[in-house]
Design brief:
This protein is an alpha/beta fold. The chain contains seven helices and four strands. It has two domains: about 100 residues, HUPs (Rossmann fold); about 45 residues, no CATH class. It is globular.
Length: about 160
Amino acid sequence: MQAVGIVVEYNPFHNGHLYQLTQAKKETEADIVIVVMSGTFLQRGEPALISKWSRTEMALANGADLVIELPYPFSTQKAEYFANGAVQLLTELGVEFVHFGSEAGNILPFYELVDAIQKDLSTINSYVQEHMKQGLSYPRAFSDALTRLNSRQPSL
């Protein structure tokens, strides 16, 4: 039995989420869809608009076969920890595929961004620290660091 995993918040569940659930199963030919979902608190620590129970019901009613709650220590963190916690859960469950959505529908820019970040990680970290000392949040500081690096290197 093959499973596809999706990392979600569903705050609230909408037609784009329904499309993703349907496409994930179709594209991977998986037998089941396992969803890892934030609980009461979402990424960056904000409270969910809709209870985790209602969001779980929506997911199950629209194609998810199993919903696992992403533990609080991961669900309220920056993207790297959020994703690592969720993917670790999916890996432990034996999920063969992880499916994610994007507005672009093209994974190549993600690979290019990862390569660029890895190539210039020390510079990016330096910029992030500089921006955070100015009082910016980590997500804003990271975004500004990438923008700053991009202005120096058109290839990013």
